[in-house]
Amino acid sequence: MNPVLRRGLTGLVLGVSITALAGCGTLFHPERKGQVSGRIDPVVAIANGVGLLFFIVPGVIAYAVDFSNGTIYLPSDHSSAGVDTLRLEEGMDVARLERLLSEKTGKPVSLDDELVRVAEVDSLDEALALVRMAGIDDEARLATM
Question: Rounded to an integer, what distance in angstroms lies between the CA atom of residue 5 and that of residue 79?
């Protein structure tokens, strides 16, 4: 066999194997990590299926990685999201922010609580992924399964 062709095929098989072992959805859409259910993304499913063509093990591992990370699912329509956006005024102090959040949620809020996480995000998808990864309402979701 021609050495150039052999080197090219070796590189191709190695590249596909590494992609399959890492999970295609995890590489293509890392922002989807933490999703627990939804419609399966056909592009990711087909890309993982390519691993099944080369060897069974890389394809199975790719599916396992993507299902465990939740990256095989399409983003939700955000209709049942538990994330609200608030525009903060310039110079807002912590006490005023706590009052605003208490009014919005109907519960007392303390930003000094160790269970409270405040983060600035670039998109709603990123915020939803953080909420899902935090395990909020996991007991309610698991009870319905």
Answer: 51
Query: Does residue 73 contact residue 32 with C-beta atoms inside 8 Å?
Result: yes
Which tokens is 145 given? 């399964």
Cα 56 to the center of its chain, rounded Å? 25
Bridge partners of 73? 40
Per residue in 64-123, pLDDT (tens digit) is 888 888 888 887 654 444 556 667 777 778 888 888 888 887 888 888 877 676 777 787
| pTM above threshold 0.90 | no
Which residue in the block uniquely carries the two structure tokens 């955000």? 78
Alpha carbon 73 to chain centroid distance? Answer: 9
Residue whose structure tokens are 């990370």: 69
The position carrying tokens 């590494």 is: 18
- Structure tokens given for 11: 């590189």
